[in-house]
Design brief:
The protein is mainly alpha-helical. The protein folds into two domains: 183 residues, no CATH class; 213 residues, no CATH class. The protein contains 17 helices and no strands.
Amino acid sequence: MLFNSLDFAIFLPVVFVLYWFVLNKKVKTQNLLILVASYFFYGLWDWRFLFLILASTVVDYLVGIQIHNNENNKGVQKIWLWCSVIFNISLLGFFKYYNFFADSFVDLFQLFGYTVKSTWTLNIILPVGISFYTFQTMSYSLDIYYKRVEPSRDFLSFATFVAFFPQLVAGPIERASNLLHQITNKRKFDYTQSVSGLKLILWGLFKKMVIADGIAPIVDDIFLNYSTYPASTLILGVTLFSFQVYGDFSGYSDIAIGTAKLFGVELMSNFKFPNFSRNVAEYWQRWHVSLSTWFRHYVYIPLGGSRVSKLKSVRNICVIFLVSGFWHGANWTFIFWGGFHALAYIPVFLMGRNTIYKDNVVGENSFFPSFVELGQLVLTFGIVTFSRIFFRSESLTDSFHFISRIFTNFEYVAYEHPSGYRMVDYFVLLAVFVLYEYRIRRDERNPFKFKSKVVRFIAYTVVIFAILLFYDSGFDRSFIYFQF
């Protein structure tokens, strides 16, 4: 079930009414409703893979208890921890990476002159959300091992924590320290919280259905036919893809966070206006925050983080970016994408500028950015956008051919929309979107923050009208990160 579908528009109010006005006496009854609703939500995609979620839930629930019960025996604790890590990585390895490794081994043998029939690959369906919920349950076991949280003895609450439908299939990747106690404790209806949630849902739908879906046909056309287009069109295509993937994924996160608010739950922020980053380090503090902080806490810091020598710190940076790239997909394009970001991040780290923008935003003391900040924004956006050639291309060959045409074919030809629409309308739309986001850049949780009720009403009206205008029942409305 998709957030931007009519099915969800019916599903959400029904669950909301049952949750607050029918089954609101006991928290366990509410949790049971959420669990059933979550399994139904996921099962509409493919009910068979519910068994994977249940298996991951059972394993980490038992592992967490065993780690806690053996807190005086470090060796036994490590064995149980490795049970969780191996089980979850094995799920990912088989369903997401098996064919990648099989094909890579075949290519390796052929490189040395051996002919191998490619019969090792299997027709495997990638379960939606597997990269997200396996990381979530695995972090639970790790947090118990490092004594950051206590294990849950309530299986129903833990199962609800794992399968919580607002963030089940594409995050944010929550940790038990933030989400589990909210699931366990009694929740009270808060009108202000619910209204805030509805605003986020509306803004998320706008970013997904108007921004991302609106420019998707253009991006698809340019990347599919890149060999026939000049450099100007290719630059346009990858620039639009930057807006598409941002609108698509941050839109999903806004809807997820807003939906959770309707049920009295606060999820972590996953996007903090990354397009207004002044260097690559700040970008990764603002983009897909739940994943970047996951790798920081469970990979980078255990490797020594920045407390070790500069050389080892650089090694650690390379590790987390390469692993992050591989997390995104079983393709060498994602590994190159991760490696590219590592190369862009390392100079910022070596100059000691990786944390200088952690606690402020661009234009902190004025409405407009300074000329220096404006230059930093353009440079950072350019670096990130260039890297997305690898992210979007089907293969490394396509990536390098795409880049080659940018630097060798300088002819300018005005691009024509595949459906005949005026391109100037899209440029105006994106310009207004960027300016609007800049205006609200200090608070990602309140996209309609205006003192005037009249202005707020106008904003709501324009956004709703745009969503209805761009809605296309025949368009594939899946979210990009469902494939990860």
